[in-house]
Backbone:
């Protein structure tokens, strides 16, 4: 991670808010794009840190989103400064946009980009954009999406779209930029990659792997309760405590947890369109990353 991080900025995110942040020994930074498992990793970290399903506060308060312009930077800094537990901080910024501190562990989530895109499409329909505009103080920066095209057409356009990753990290170029940067750092002790599909298929195993990388010891008697609390169904049932919506930007918080499965993106496209997707990403990322990402 460079001494001068790349600056990422969008209507509601600004990576410059990390500049000058006072890290502590043992801090955890969760770096993931939207709908790739950010909240899931936050929940797992909370369960490992507190070692009980009965968390002392909502997930948004325990693990604030530092890049988010919705909450004033000074308020987030003060909130984190007042925490006595091991801190785990949410970010949607790629690693090259974050300050490097040797005391910190950086968790990066990956998901098949087509599945991520489908979830993003549905989440976009669930956002209260007027409320977002009010909170950042610039309604013109959060335009209404109006009537969205069909999922199929939106996904085809998303695959073909060209955007500057520094301004549109939820675009396909932005997603691949984020993951490629993390993939190049995967041998570093401070960087841990987690695949969404692995959380779906082997939640217990992935939680144990993360506990090991974070140096957290959990008794065998405690593990079953923690794993159950991290399941998709359990998190959805407790949406009011888990969904990252402290200021009411979602129309329906329970819809944040829509399916929690893999494969929806590929199923939406024709064979030709799917080939076009694979052809495009092959120009954006190395083959070993794509094999890991697509579960080839």
Residues:
């Amino acid at each position: 991670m460079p001494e001068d991080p790349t600056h990422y900025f969008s209507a509601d995110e600004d990576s410059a808010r990390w500049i000058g942040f006072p890290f502590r020994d043992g801090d955890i930074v969760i770096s993931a794009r939207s709908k790739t498992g950010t909240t899931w990793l936050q929940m797992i970290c909370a369960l490992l840190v507190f070692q009980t399903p009965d968390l002392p506060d909502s997930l948004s308060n325990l693990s604030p989103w530092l890049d988010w312009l919705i909450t004033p930077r000074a308020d987030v800094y003060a909130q984190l400064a007042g925490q006595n537990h091991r801190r785990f901080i949410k970010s949607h910024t790629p690693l090259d946009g974050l300050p490097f501190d040797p005391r910190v562990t950086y968790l990066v989530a990956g998901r098949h980009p087509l599945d991520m895109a489908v979830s993003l499409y549905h989440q976009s329909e669930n956002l209260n954009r007027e409320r977002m505009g009010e909170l950042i103080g610039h309604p013109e920066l959060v335009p209404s999406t109006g009537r969205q095209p069909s999922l199929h057409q939106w996904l085809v356009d998303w695959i073909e779209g060209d955007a500057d990753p520094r301004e549109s990290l939820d675009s396909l170029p932005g997603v691949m930029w984020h993951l490629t940067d993390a993939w190049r750092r995967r041998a570093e002790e401070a960087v841990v990659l987690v695949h969404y599909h692995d959380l779906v298929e082997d939640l217990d195993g992935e939680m144990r792997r993360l506990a090991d990388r974070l140096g957290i010891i959990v008794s065998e008697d405690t593990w079953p309760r923690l794993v159950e609390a991290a399941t998709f169904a359990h998190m959805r049932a407790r949406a009011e405590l888990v969904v990252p919506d402290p200021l009411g930007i979602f129309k329906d918080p329970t819809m944040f947890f829509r399916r929690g499965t893999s494969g929806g993106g590929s199923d939406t496209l024709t064979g030709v369109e799917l080939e076009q997707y694979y052809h495009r990403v092959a120009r954006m990322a190395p083959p070993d990353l794509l094999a890991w990402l697509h579960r080839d």
The chain has a mean pLDDT of 87. The CA atoms of residues 35 and 119 lie 6 Å apart.
